[in-house]
Amino acid sequence: MKTKIITALLTAAMAVSFAACGQTEETTSSGEAAQQSTQVSESGSQEGAEATQEQTLTVWCWDSFNVDAMKTAGEIYEADHPGVKIDVVETVSSDIQTLVQTYAMSGELNALPDIFLMDDQVFAKYLQNYPEVFADLTDSGINFSDFAASKVANSVSGGRNYGVPYDSNTVIACYRTDYLEQAGYTIDDLTDITWDEFIAIGEDVLAKTGMPMLTNVQGEPDLLNMILQSAGISVFDEQGNIALVDNDGLKYAMNIYMELVQKGILQEQTDWSGYQGSINNGTVVGTINGSWICATIMSTDQAEQEGNWAVTNMPKLNDYDGATNYSAQGGSTWAISSTCSNYDLAVDFFNTTWAGSTEFYDRILTDLGAIATYLPAAESDAYNQTSDYFGGEAIYSKIVSYGSMIPTVNKGIYWSEEKEALGVALANVLGGTTDLDSAIAEAQATVEFNIGQ
């Protein structure tokens, strides 16, 4: 049976590779990525090839945004380390996950790159299922206390560190200040508040402006999960079992979400495009999401929006022990493979850039808009620069400071299964096809079935 599974996975990996043949040259298929992790590119001079054979670190990551950030780190490191090359291979996130699983199950770990990027929401799952893939970084000299604790927790197992945090997943609340002013409010009225206070303001703003306060994709429980983490609420027990039924915190958070929708304070969209459009077209007051949403907000062609946005923290649960105004959403983390061709070089590379240089973070913030979870970056000049789009406020240093206050929560290894089940549960209750308790019980049963518990 195991042989059949491995064969199927290898076939899938090959299929992904063939499908990628029609992509642009900037995107390398998973098959090519695997080959580049063990072979030197034939392009360039023989002298360059010999150098890369001796001192090359191959990196897999997805999206031009992440690729450019890693290339920037490579340029900085290469400038002070002649003969070293950081070879960045753009590889789709799902392909990385497939190949990690494939090569782990087949025992072909040498086919993996030296460094790869892993989605925070699945890092723990792959670390638990395939621990042999990940290099232990606990005693590497990387100072993990320099990163937001909630971010570091995504790549910790058994008290050991297996990842280097990358982009900020800190949650922010962004609001149109011109819409708030029409209703007699300022951003200060929405700072450090509870959900009860937010709902009262939201009803008033809706009555006076006709604008819902928030937007979200229908059937996606992202905001629900943000509310849960803000209060340190987990939907998994200490043994990693799904724990939805009799979870008072979950029920409390779901009731908050449903009240937002039912009162028209939160407008649900049919898809991500609709979500983006509601922000860019100015049909909602704001949104609550990971800090990466700033790029979406600033992508509008409506010039009147510039200067009319502000950033603050999210509301917190009322009278709930451990509740805060801070949470996380999305993000990713770097890993060094256990078969890295030069572990010491890879560690030094990270210590020099991702885990040790505010100048590096200044550069990727200025050039790419990449926001860090590296806490020392908040003190740099670039992070303290003001944003004209957000009313002349230094939003980046604020975001980094928020990251240090996010509660750490047990997210389990079946995050994607939990997310899908809770999304269905919310949709069913809001659609009137079931009650909340029944929806939660059904979600619990669905997750248990899907993960074989």
How would you sum up this structure, described in words?
This protein is α/β, with parallel strands linked by helices and 453 residues long. The protein folds into 2 domains: 2-166 and 329-382, Periplasmic binding protein-like II (D-Maltodextrin-Binding Protein, domain 2, 3-Layer(aba) Sandwich); 171-327 and 406-451, Periplasmic binding protein-like II (D-Maltodextrin-Binding Protein, domain 2). It has 18 helices and 12 strands. It has helices at 2-19, 30-36, 46-55, 64-80, 93-106, 120-129, 149-152, 177-182, 195-209, 222-230, 248-262, 272-280, 293-297, 343-352, 358-368, 395-403, 415-430, 436-451, and strands at residues 56-61, 85-90, 115-119, 156-157, 160-161, 164-165, 171-176, 214-217, 266-269, 286-290, 309-312, 332-336. It has a 5-stranded mixed β-sheet with strand order 2-1-3-12-6. The protein has a 3-stranded antiparallel β-sheet with strand order 10-7-11. The two termini are 20 Å apart.
